[in-house]
Amino acid sequence: MRKVYYLFILLLLITLIVPVPDSDLSRQLQQKVINIQHELLNEQTVKNVELKTPNDQEFAINNIQINQTKSDVEKHLGKPKRVTVNEYNEKWHTYHNQYHEFVMVSYDHGRVSGLYTNQDLITSQKGITSKMDKTKVRSILGKPVSEIQKDKVKLIQNDQDYDVFKFDNIYTTIFYDKYENNQIKGIMQIAANTENKRTNQYRPASKDYERALELQNYDLVNAERVNFDLPTLTYNGGVSQTARKHSQDMVENDYFDHTNKQGLSPFDRLDQDGFNYIAAGENLAFGQISSVYAHHGLMNSMGHRENILNKDYKELGVGVDIGEDLQPYWTENYITQQ
After folding, report:
1. Is the Cβ–Cβ distance between 59 and 172 less than 8 Å?
2. What is the 3-state secondary structure (H, E, C) of the chain?
3. Exposed/middle/buried for 296, CB within 10 Å: 0-12, 13-18, 19+?
4. pTM for the whole thing?
5. In angstroms, what CA-CA distances link 8 with 14, 18, 25, 335?
């Protein structure tokens, strides 16, 4: 706090002596004060999590395991920050501490049926950690699942960005970061009973589900940013509407592009909707089965990754639309307004 105090006094003196608003030195000192305050706030609010090796299953995420009771989870994590429907016709309960200790949990009859994190909250009986790469993971867990058979659909699992394993009557998907030597970037666990209830690749469309995908995507981006010591982004409902209209346009006119059929770029569309910005960017995703898969796909694409991790952006709007083939279209619009 002493550092903040001295910087505040110095800033006050400069303001009194040189009463020129928004000088370069003034802005630099203001930003230093903000950064230090942010660091101190994080030190006060983010607690160190003591992660323990699981006893009953191969993996735990933030000390939570499949089949644990909801009451036990919430004794540990508190109440969820958000509850949204997911592709399994259940609900993701999102827990975090200012996007640190980020975990998504689904429940079936009061017990954990699904888990996800994109942070360093993994513990394993075999010693798997978030620092391990794909080769090491496979050497420990063996050959990944090549397909998941549904009633009338066979889901092929041959993507280089993730592996699916089945043990403990649980499907465990491990996502890799190809820009960090294929280290583990995230992990999702789904109880086999829950996975078996999903009879198709995609969930039927609804406005409730589309809005859920948008908010899940927004939360995933912020949880990712704190991994890289970046400030979180504010949700902008107006920008989300701009993004949503572009996703709807792509569905209705059967294309996938940043430039629409009228030749309008993302910047044109933001201008058209009245946003006065100094920086902006757009990410698009199409066809992934959930926001989790869409997010990891974007993180493994350099241009999209740079938008997610851009330190200059302040706000984010997300728009999702689902067509007749049930494949979602995501539009993320990043913006810093004047």
Report:
1. yes
2. CHHHHHHHHHHHHHHHHCCCCCCHHHHHHHHHHHHHHHHHHHHHHCCCCCCCCCCCCCEEECCECCCCEHHHHHHHHCCCCEEEECCCCCEEEEEEECCEEEEEEEEECCEEEEEEECCCCEEECCCCCCCCEHHHHHHHHCCCCCEEECCCCEEECCCCCEEEEEECCEEEEEEEEHHHCCEEEEEEEEEHHHHHHCCCCCCCCCHHHHHHHHHHHHHHHHHHHHHCCCCCCEECHHHHHHHHHHHHHHHHHCCCCCCCCCCCCHHHHHHHCCCCEEEEEEEEEECCCCHHHHHHHHHCCHHHHHHHCCCCCCEEEEEEEECCCCCEEEEEEEEEEC
3. buried
4. 0.85
5. 10, 15, 13, 29
Alpha-carbon distance values, 90 to 108, 113, 141, 251 (Å): 7, 9, 28, 26
Using one digit for the tens of pLDDT, what is the confidence trace for 127-173?
Answer: 999 999 999 999 999 999 887 776 666 666 778 899 999 999 999 99
For residue 61, which amino acid is it? I
| Rounded CA separation 132/166 (Å) | 19
What are the two backbone dihedrals, phi and then psi, of residue 300, each rounded to the nearest 5 degrees? -95, 20
Integer Cα distance of 321 and 254 in angstroms: 12
> pLDDT tens digits, residue range 54-80?
988 999 999 999 999 999 999 999 999
Token pair 């909250």 in the structure block, residue: 121
Residue with more model confidence, 158 or 2: 158
Q: What is the mean pLDDT of residues 305-332?
A: 97
Query: What residues contact 240, with CB distance under 8 A and at least 6 apart?
Result: 214, 317, 318, 319, 333
Place of tokens 């107006």: 238
**CB count in 10 Å sphere of residue 58:** 19
